[in-house]
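Researcher: I'd like a structural prediction for the single chain below. Treat it as a standalone chain; there are no partners to consider.
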Amino acid sequence: MNAFRFLLVLFFVVIVGYTGVVVWKHGMGLFPVFFGDMAKLGWPGQFNLDFMCLLALSGLWVSWRHRFSAPGILLGLGAFFGGAMFLSVYLFVESFRAKGDFTSLLLGGNRANP
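Model: Treating it as a single chain, here is the predicted structure.
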């Protein structure tokens, strides 16, 4: 579990740093570029569409893990819009709540221990 937590911290630091550089150089215009690439029907757009589907699955999983409660849906939206930056922090915190048990981490709450 410690190796997994280290990986999550590494992901977070790298993504925050990379995002900071991109925002510094190009500003906050993510959405026109993201959806513009998809509208062109090229490989960058294919990658963006695939990535958006993964973000949707991530958001649905987080919401499901919290039984689609109001806080769970908000966390799911955070996963969808925040991507790996959000998910790395979320999984880091939840790994401690799950006391290092991967089954509990993946399933959430009392699903792991019926």
